[in-house]
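Fold this sequence, please.
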Amino acid sequence: MSKSGLRSFPRNFWTVITMEFFERGSYYSVMSILSVYLVLGVNEGGLGFTKESVGVIKSVITPLLYILPIISGAIADRFGYRKILFFSFAVMSLGYLLTSFSNTYATVFLSLILMVTGAGFFKPIISGTIARSTDSRNSSLGFGIYYWAINLGAFLFPLIFVPLLKSIGWSYIFIMAAVGTGWLLFLNLFAYKEPTIPKSNKSLIMVFKEMVLVLKDYKFILMIVVYSGFWVLYFQMFDSVLWFLKEYVDMTPVDTFVNSLLAIFVSNPNWHFDAEHVTVVNAGTIIALQLVISAIVKNTRALPTMIVGIAMGTIGMAVLATSNYAWVFIGGMIVFSLGEMIAQPKFISYIGLIAPDDKKALYMGYSFLYGVIGSGIGGVLGAYSYVKLVNEMGRPSMFWLMFSFIGVATILGLLAYNRFILKKGTANPHS
């Protein structure tokens, strides 16, 4: 009799789930405060970089994180998962460690490139191992656990470790991330088992040929470009939203409320909502509501559901334009997170519908290019616009309305794409 539920997964599955939890926890710990740390004055423990220069850093490292899996997946299939995981953890941990010691723009930039190189090589290995550790009976549950591990790491690490370490010194957050990923070297050596994978003859040249094939499909690329508009908004969560919080939002009402709850359990609590808690709100909302949202939209049509999700994300940005009151800020973050939960799964479904029947797997692999475009534009646009509209003109509402208009343009673009670009006879994208 075959095992069912959680008992149906082999040890290797739980090994990579552990890896994912610690890697994502480390990553989001750093990303939850990075844009604040880099612009914070030297006398406050930061590095004193300009927001524009930070925007350039983010517009390079984040696209790299999204595009590297195209290459690293092919390399792993040829040379083995364990070897690539070892490389990934070593480079990732070194990148975090070097960032903790770096205080010049060039050295920070290079250290972060090392970090995202390791993270980019890591991403396809974990999902590939899960795919080969599950079958038709437990695959859905397995990837659900995988998604929860991501968000649990993104929730717990910034909530628990970041405030504690930040009170000692900002550099300790990067050291923690270095330790959090570095110890996975030993887990890889002593617990991870190389999965049985079909021998691959795919060379990097073949990978680039596939890339050219996909890039020549203007309908697919146009779809990615349009949808990327939503992710221009998303990546503000790690940059301009944090600056706005630090400079314009008085979180005292939230602090008072949370401390009143904590006072039931501890005496004289002194909790304070800070930049890292934006990630906590986002991940916590997903953890709490993803199953409910997934059940609601399970059988809904792909494109209309995507539009609803993007509309909610757009409303979340627009909310920030209405007020700098603490609870309004929290509400905007929650509404945006709900939009993300609704839009992203249906986007994956939509890509499956519009991709050619004989190339669906290939197209799904390249669908994450939305992250390359969204982060590449969002980092620079957010930073330069923030300086001009918020810091120089004192018009934060105009700044958030600008991003709301990008969200509206994304919705109109999707409607136009569906109406004018897709030919009749294509698989029904409304299904």
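The chain has 18 helices and no strands. Confidence is low (pLDDT under 50) at residues 424-431.
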